[in-house]
Amino acid sequence: MAKFVEFNGEIIGIPDKSFKIIDSSKNVKKTAKHYQTLISKFSTGDDDDDIAELVGNQPMMTEEIANKIADIADLTAKEKANLADQSYSDQYAIFNDFLTKFLGIKLPSLDDDDETESEAETDPKLPEED
């Protein structure tokens, strides 16, 4: 069954346009190629300082993710230019949707939420401990 990545164009500064991008061979190949180039550009081979590497690569990541969305969604030059003024987190999430739905992989989360909390710690139905 076909898979789609759908998003409202308003998220990326294109009002009155919605996107529904199918997992066609062309789009899967584009997504895979873009993921490989992103990983190769991001990796410096120095695992000693992951935070510095991540922060140091953010200017490149913001531009690369916008370029990849523009390519996969076939945006015009004007539509692509709008991406620079839109939420990077939203763009990151859209590109992550392409990766998840088309390739079964995902980028690390941008959220600072601790996802390692157990259900017992977050379940509101459980009684509070004194």
Automatic annotation (TrEMBL):
Q: Looking at the record, which segments are called Disordered? A: 108-130
Q: Where is the composition biased (Acidic residues)?
A: 110-121
- Could you identify this protein by its name? Phage portal protein
Top-rank taxon, per record? Bacteria
